[in-house]
Amino acid sequence: MGDLAIFVLIISLQSLMCNVYCSCLNQSSSENILEDSFSFPSDFLFGTASSAYQYEGAFLAEGKGLNNWDIFTHEYPGKIRDANNGDMAVDQYHRFMEDIQLMTSLGVNSYRFSISWSRVLPRGRFGSINYSGITYYNRLIDALISRGIKPFVTLNHLDYPQELENRFQSWLSPEMQKDFLYLANICFKHFGDRVKLWTTLNEPNNQIILSHLRGTFPPSRCSLPYGNCSQGNSETEPFIAAHNVILAHAKAVQLYRTKYKEEQKGIIGIVVQTSWFEPISDSIADKAAAERAQAFYSNWILDPVIYGKYPKEMVNILGSALPRFSRKEVECLKESQSDFVGINHYTSYFIQDCLLSSCNIGVGASKVEGYALKLDRKGNLTIGEPTDINWQHIHPEGFRKMLNYLKDRYHNIPMFITENGFGDLQKPETTVKELLNDAKRIQYMSGYLDALQSAMRDGANVKGYFAWSLLDNFEWLYGYKLRFGLYHVDPVTLKRTPKRSASWYRNYIGENIRRRYD
Length: 518
Ligand code: BGC
Description:
Elements: H1 3-21, H2 27-37, E1 45-49, H3 52-55, H4 68-75, H5 92-106, E2 110-114, H6 117-120, E3 122-125, H7 131-146, E4 150-156, H8 162-168, H9 175-191, E5 197-202, H10 204-213, H11 237-264, E6 267-279, H12 284-295, H13 298-307, H14 312-318, H15 327-335, E7 340-353, E8 372-375, E9 377-378, E10 381-382, E11 385-386, E12 393-394, H16 396-409, E13 415-420, E14 424-425, H17 432-436, H18 439-458, E15 462-467, E16 482-483, E17 487-489, E18 496-498, H19 500-515
Helix pairs in contact: 5-7, 9-11, 10-11, 11-13, 11-15, 16-18
The site of beta-D-glucopyranose (BGC) has 11 residues, from loops.
Signal peptide: 1-18
Pfam family, one: Glyco_hydro_1
Protein name: Beta-glucosidase 45-like
């Protein structure tokens, strides 16, 4: 027996004995050993995330066309808390070199951004390509890569050319699938030699609830009692829009697979919004309601994308309001498997059954959301520490549970955490000093990153984490009053100033990269 074989034998005997005796160590000390020994895989991505409308500004610069958010914010400024819009946003269109410098100083190895559809195709497929838009993204991509930052590109994050709304009501029409495919092809063709990480659409589940169920986002379509809109039908349109989104995603994936992947060698997925839904009691009815809440939220998109069919809870409750996939479409879905899923995650809720029990009126309680009432408290107990925003509670344990749920439901498909972050609501009395001293954001991120590590130890196949967000930015209906950035942005000068969380994230990344080599 050679020296090496003897060495291996000794080590094996030692670990065998340890298995017999070390398991007698009390649980907490063995857990500590594991805690200390955790390290992220060497190819793990640490990044920051953004989106075109929230960051770029330059709203009519160099040939960009008008998009749905340009029109919405200009026509209805009263719907935005500070009556503002993304015309200027944080002007990343002109300041991306400075922003990449900030990313370099954080030590991130990836940046998630989205393509402004109307910058590349001002009139969708009904007009020509705006080559200034292509040049902008080429410059951004090249500058990122030259600093060792991998571009992680979302083809579409809520904004689309207004022309597509005017012509055929955007996602309510199968025509939108053609337009999305057209955009995808142009992006793969022009950027795919350097972009290796693609997602098709950003959280259509959340977007559609806001745009077509409650009607608070453009195109402001809904019906009573779900919202107050001049047109729309909350009981049917959200499901039609999602159906078109799912098929558009599948077609784009198939296009990438068949035409580009072999040469470009990238991977592609979709991003969904997730929240952890904790049954409010141990009753069978509340547990089933929590499962229905998942079905009507992230599984609504992920089940068709991964398994080619809608969740059974949706089929049973919605009946004919839920569109059906034709046999050919099911095949297309199955052939266009995503390489990974992108997970946006911010908060948790308690869930109470409203199918078998009587319920108060509230979010989630109706048929179209699965008769599963979303609550932030059970008696006096909140689901997590409350924050300034009514929809966000600090509940890292929910994140761990969510990742385990997805791991089990989707056969441990690779996941990227494409968004996770904490929002500070700026009140009239809030000072800049307070915003810079963002201890709550650090508490939030550190809790959620611990939960991520726990989920990975549980076996969740997570490949990266993107903090939302690099900078304070245009936070949709909140305008600039809700700040998610690691960097503060002055509303007048647009000067970027690091918050305490920026140095905290820099240290976290540094330590975790170092740990791999210890
Ligand atoms: C969206 C972002 C948004 C963030 C914070 C996510 O659902 O993708 O665009 O800024 O939530 O509200």
